[in-house]
């Protein structure tokens, strides 16, 4: 397919995928997910590629999450199609027999952080910010964060991140185990390239088996919980409470969820 939302290059054994929507802090819309899926398949099927780097254009964001303008029009039947779209991307990332490295500058939040969770390793610049946004905008991060986040940062911290939607610095993300390394912004490209070269020096068949073995346990958790929870989330798209978060974001105001805890008896 012709790419509009991403850039794809492959040279020297490294495929680089760049979310190219800097004007909206690399927020992802349906086309973006589909292009990322197609590009991941290209990298997986290319025998000359040994490692994949995923990043965002500009210096403001790796990915700021889903494009809220798309979510504004989402209803259950559209949501179910979206859930299948998400599953297609995460499946190729998890099943690809090559390491995927997230190169993060700026915001890595919402579904952007879930994309980060599907990568094998993450190198971030000092100005990076990590977090989830689901309950803030009337949604739920069931596409990876509810299944995988606790494996990286621990159960308690995962609950804090999901329930409060707080954002964390790159150093905090490193200390909690969410990422691998923090470097100065000017050193990010060189650090990621050095990591790629280190991987390319290793046996590809050994890395293939290691990745599949590492994923085996969490695959059962992810696939087992994704489908029922995807249906639950799709079923609330477009209702009043879901719309409150989206509308508030677009109106640049704080959402009022307290009214949904008032007794209706």
UniProtKB/TrEMBL annotation:
SUPFAM superfamilies on file: ClpP/crotonase (SSF52096)
GO molecular function, one term: 1,4-dihydroxy-2-naphthoyl-CoA synthase activity
Source superkingdom: Bacteria
Stored InterPro entries: ClpP/crotonase-like_dom_sf, Enoyl-CoA_hydra/iso, Enoyl-CoA_hydra_C
GO biological process: menaquinone biosynthetic process
Gene Ontology cellular-component annotations: cytosol
Pfam families: ECH_1
Family: Belongs to the enoyl-CoA hydratase/isomerase family.
Record's protein name: 1,4-dihydroxy-6-naphthoate synthase
